[in-house]
Protein: Protein dachsous-like
Organism: Diaphorina citri
Amino acid sequence: MSIEFPENTPRDVKRTLNAAKDRDLGIYNTQRYNIVSGNTNNAFRLSSHREKDGVLYLDLQINGVLDRETIPEYSLVIEALDGGSPPLRGSMIVNVTIQDVNDNQPIFNQSRYFATVPENATVGTSIFQVFATDADAGSNGEVEYSINRRQSDKDGLFNIDSKSGLIFVNKALDFETKEVHELVVVAKDKGLQPLETTAFVSICTKDFYHTV
């Protein structure tokens, strides 16, 4: 059988598993369950209770911290034993999928970037490309880029491609007006509650000789 847990599931949360059925009665009925293999880092434990129908019902409980980025799936072999001597056994495989939660922010491959551009570069000229990754899955791991206009480049001299992270000239530059431009670049994921991080880009404008 297959079940799912979000990776932020608290300890002790349980999912009901298929109970073993034994036609024998009393002590020769199902007496206990064990996880035989697949329980990496003891992430899970079993709990059981017997109902009036005599069946020993089974639950799988969280026993530790789940992290999809570390272990996305578990394949648990669970056995049921009766009370005979020696006991008779039966087993089943439980496939556990850990569902992604947006718990990782994007990470730039550098905290600060440096680039140069001639002051006579035309609008649309590519300057530099930043890059960030996000360990989450799906939209939680998709990164989009922007320039923080509140903290940098308020005149909009530069722009950035939201998908590729490529920075390019957006307006005419002038070395005599400003030689070095400091940009605050944002990488944000597309989760429902997006996480973001920033990096700094220093762009040095190279002087272009002007004839009189």
Remarks:
- The radius of gyration is 29 Å.
- The domain at 2-99 is CATH 2.60.40.60 (Immunoglobulin-like).
- The chain has a mean pLDDT of 93.
